[in-house]
Amino acid sequence: MSRFNEILTLAQERARHLNLSYEGALTPREAHELLQLLPNARLVDVRTRAEWDWVGRVPNAIEIEWLSYPGNTPNPHFVQELKQALSTESLLLFMCRSGGRSNAAACAASEAGFPDCYNVLEGFEGDKDASGHRNALGGWRFHGLPWIQS
């Protein structure tokens, strides 16, 4: 079995275990590896513009807000923007700060006809630690994966 098939199988098993309505759930390292292995895989970062600007960006990610800043109001054009930016044949990896918004985005994309939707567990910053700080328990940055800050 090829490495990308192995990763996708693990992600799909997690989705079944978690009763997700989309294809699968990936760790940040698995997501990064898939982006290297599969030319049709695209990372969709659904955080807010403020998060991209102030916290950091993943190079080459497609940036489409799930909630708009300020106010955290739902982006009514999310699916339309996704369809304009990507083909339904792309394997989509959704990421937010810690995995919640990207879960909702993966559900919406799947319902809109994108068949290969995966959520990146832990997100960009991971969950809060006992002190209330992020990036100590997991996430894209915690694992040392590529990111930039403006």
Explain what the structure shows:
The chain has 150 residues and is an alpha/beta fold. The protein has a domain at 3-43 and 87-120. 35% of the residues lie in helices and 15% in strands. It has helices at 3-18, 28-37, 49-54, 78-85, 100-111; strands spanning 24-26, 41-45, 62-63, 67-68, 73-74, 91-95, 117-120. The strands form two sheets. The protein has a five-stranded parallel sheet, sandwiched between helices. A two-stranded antiparallel sheet has the order 4-5. The radius of gyration is 14 Å and the shape is globular. The mean pLDDT is 92.
Topology:
Blueprint: H1 3-18, E1 24-26, H2 28-37, E2 41-45, H3 49-54, E3 62-63, E4 67-68, E5 73-74, H4 78-85, E6 91-95, H5 100-111, E7 117-120
Parallel strand pairs: 1-7, 2-3, 2-6, 6-7
Antiparallel strand pairs: 4-5
Features:
two-stranded antiparallel sheet, about 150 residues, 7 strands, five-stranded parallel beta sheet, alpha/beta
Q: Give a count of the beta strands, DSSP E runs of length 2 or more.
A: 7
The percent range for helix content is 25-40%
Number of helices: 5
Proportion of residues in β-strands: 15-25%
The largest sheet has its strands arranged as: 1-7-6-2-3
Uncertain parts: none
Principal-axes shape call: globular
**Average pLDDT for all residues:** 92
Structural class: alpha/beta
Nearest-angstrom radius of gyration? 14 Å
How many strands, what sense, and barrel or not for the largest sheet?
Answer: 5 strands, parallel
In whole angstroms, the N-to-C terminal distance is 40 Å
List the helices and strands in order: HEHEHEEEHEHE
